[in-house]
């Protein structure tokens, strides 16, 4: 394992096993991984030209702290020592603020699966940081998405197999699944 520091980011609304594949691929490349949570609060959310649904409240049901806790628990569940990772806000929509939270001299890991991924790649390389693309896949090969997990919760279908065990426990013990249902109901997305 290299001695370098890596940075990776995502919305993690909610953290699922494909996210863990992404996080662990980055962690395997560096000694210390800084995990950035994008859209850390409503003030950072912007309408995305490539995916206008990303900014809707029903697609952002979890707070920064809840996502922080899910990531922390899952990384520990996956055997990553706590001293080898940090979790920080990552304002990708206001890139001039990124270096308030993450080091400029780290390696920035990411995946590209759609136009939004391409935009983020251009944003990060435009900041002059070293970017390493872990994989570049077509959208149809992306795999599980947080949208899929949230829809399964809304539809009352099984979703525990798509998330780390610690994340499932956290969501159900804190009744966050009920919040997803309530937000969907308010948005007219339930039957």
Automatic annotation (TrEMBL):
Pfam families: CTP_transf_like. GO terms for molecular function: nucleotidyltransferase activity. SUPFAM superfamilies: Nucleotidylyl transferase (SSF52374). Keywords: Nucleotidyltransferase, Transferase. Gene3D superfamilies: HUPs. Residues 8-103 form the Cytidyltransferase-like domain. This is Nicotinate-nucleotide adenylyltransferase.
């Amino acid at each position: 394992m290299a001695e370098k520091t890596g940075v990776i980011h995502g919305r993690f609304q909610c953290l699922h096993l494909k996210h863990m594949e992404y996080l662990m691929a980055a962690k395997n490349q560096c000694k210390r991984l800084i995990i950035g949570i994008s859209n850390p609060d409503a003030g950072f959310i912007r309408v995305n030209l490539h995916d206008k649904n990303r900014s809707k409240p029903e697609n952002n049901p979890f707070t920064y702290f809840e996502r922080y806790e899910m990531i922390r628990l899952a990384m520990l569940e996956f055997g990553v020592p706590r001293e080898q990772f940090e979790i920080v806000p990552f304002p990708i929509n206001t890139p001039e603020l990124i270096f308030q939270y993450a080091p400029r001299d780290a390696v920035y890991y990411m995946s590209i699966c759609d136009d939004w991924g391409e935009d983020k790649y251009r944003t990060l390389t435009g900041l002059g940081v070293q970017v390493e693309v872990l994989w570049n896949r077509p959208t149809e090969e992306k795999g599980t998405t947080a949208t899929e997990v949230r829809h399964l919760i809304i539809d009352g279908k099984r979703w525990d197999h798509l998330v780390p065990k610690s994340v499932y426990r956290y969501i159900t013990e804190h009744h966050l699944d009920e919040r997803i249902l309530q937000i969907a109901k308010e948005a007219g997305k339930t039957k």
